[in-house]
Amino acid sequence: MIMSSFATNHVRSLVNTAGARTVSSTDSDSAAVSAQSRQSSQSEELHTLLLQLKSPFDKYTLRTTLQALNDQELARVSVSPSKLSLSGEDADNSMRVTLENRIIVGIYAEALDLWLKEASEADSEAEWWAGIARSQQSVAWYLLATLPERLRRSFYAILNALRSHHIPLRPSSFTPQTLRQLFPHSLRPTALATAFFPHLSHQPHLLFTSPLELARQECELRKEKLIFLRDERAGRLGQLLSIKSEMERSMRDERLKVTAKRLQRAIDDKSDGVDSIDTSSDSSVSLLHYLTFHQLPVHVSAHAELLSSLRRPSRLTLLWPHLALIPPLSFVAFRLVYGSRESIAETALRIHDTIKGFWFGYVIEPMKSILDTVRTGRDNAARIVSREGVRADIESLERMSIALSRDKLSLDNVELQRLVDQIRQGDLTPVLRIYEEDIKSPVRAALTGSLIRSLLIQIQKAKVDLDQALSGIDRLLHSQELTFAFVGVAPALAIVYAFVNVIRGIWIGGRGDKMLGGRKEREGSWLAIRHVERLILTNPGSSSSPSHIAEHKSESESTLPPLTSGLLLISLARLRAYAEVRLPVHSLIREGILGDIGDLENPTLGRTEKLRVVERMWRSWGTVLGWDRIGRFK
């Protein structure tokens, strides 16, 4: 298992320090190593182990290397010093020191990963219990889901009580009267009550309340225990961070036993991490071997045992009400659906016809019409009046006017041609003059004159004017044909767009966006960065009395307390996991956020510098990741 990116980045300087001596010694003693050290099997093994143990460290490789080095250490002790070559021994010591330093760095990285994982796990479980306790509905569901286990414990409590009273087991033993005799009322919780709600065993008095309230108290108690466990692991993690500089100095001075003992003290659960270091016994390799193969496994087992009683119920426990209710509900639903299959089929057919009619009638056909208009232009478009009809009416008006003028005014060809030009321009002055003369004697002109002809010519002129007006309207409509077409199809497109957005929102809400994550992931990143800022501004676990204000103020300007540093890493681990999983690989936003997280993980930066980093993250990534509008995701 490879160490996490946090641990790898944190111990990078230690890896460089551990390898510095090897580089210098290899340059100066390369001839001795090749001529004398490689003649020894131990030298070859050291060289092989040194080559395979590189950063990022692998836990399996780390343990196999340590075991091999420990075996070689035991073999060296059994060999007489007179049998060792001086120059070869010097080269071996150089490689052995470097190898031990790398093993120390690997164990240190493993310890960082382990305590961060344990603290994060406890914090995650505490958040789950807090979420259950906040909702009365969630508490009721939790009580229902854990009811079989509670009944099982209650059954065994009744069996134990029956055996202690020498009462035979029969159905009458479970009557209310028998249960009252077995578990009489008292101020302290009875064995039956503690079997149903185990947290009552820690209460001196029995408070009569509802089962829902007792279940909520159980959730709150587990949350408090997990928070205490998280803070303890976070404090130890902060202490591990604080010894990095001391380890680096010890490694630079080649004080291997001091470095190994300091790491052992920091990891020891029974130590406060600051005890004096005793280097009088045991070698550094034996200390590392004990730490890796005994101390760490014992701690892992103890933590697993402690956390097992505080974990959330198993997935099967939480799902069994669903599994129990789904079959009968499915059967009832099937009966209802089967009994109403004809009406359901008819409704489905209507819905299908409606959707089909909407799609083809209001979307596809209008879009085809728009494409046809764009492709063919105005040639095949329908018109209010045709061009040929307007031209025929104008020509008829010309002939009628020319015939009347020739009969009444006796015009020659030149004057007739001038009259044609006037008529085409809409000027009927000669015809109107004839009409003016005839109107003086309307009866005689109507019977013997040309009044009727002049009236009919004016009617033809009105028809021509109407055709020309309609032609103008027709040209205006055809010039805006695309506009009207798009206005007609716009409501249908808006409905389709809204429907697609709803489906897309449901799909993205369920599976998450590949680029920036879904709503839950963005909310988690927002909560993480908010918690980081809150931790930097405050000082969890410190005294707030006036006598300590000046002391903590001066301390807060430079470094963070171990507990604060550990809790800070928990939130940063969540933020790092979000960035590494959800943000695009090799993108600027991913690299930028990971760089900012690395700055916040740096223990050498003080409170003021980390606050500036947090402000930069809000300013740079708040809009991109939606932190500034997180309330809209609810």
Per-chain topology:
Elements: H1 5-10, H2 12-28, H3 30-35, H4 41-52, H5 59-78, H6 86-134, H7 136-145, H8 147-164, H9 176-182, H10 191-196, H11 211-242, H12 244-252, H13 256-267, H14 284-308, H15 315-339, H16 341-376, H17 387-409, H18 413-424, H19 429-438, H20 442-448, H21 451-479, H22 481-511, H23 519-537, H24 549-556, H25 562-582, H26 588-601, H27 607-621
Helix pairs in contact: 2-6, 2-12, 4-5, 4-6, 5-6, 5-14, 6-7, 6-11, 6-13, 6-14, 6-25, 7-11, 7-15, 11-25, 12-13, 13-14, 16-22, 17-18, 17-21, 19-21, 23-25, 23-27, 25-26, 26-27
Q: Tell me the total number of β-strands.
A: 0
Largest sheet: none
Write down the secondary-structure element order: HHHHHHHHHHHHHHHHHHHHHHHHHHH
End-to-end distance: 38 Å
Query: Rg from C-alpha positions?
Result: 46 Å
- As for the number of domains, it is 4
Shape: elongated
Number of helices: 27
Average of the residue pLDDT scores: 80
In terms of DSSP E residues, the strand content is under 5%
Low-confidence stretches: 22-39, 80-87, 273-280, 543-557
Q: Which oligomerization state do the chains in this entry correspond to?
A: single chain
Work out the helicity level. Answer: over 70%
Structural class: mainly alpha
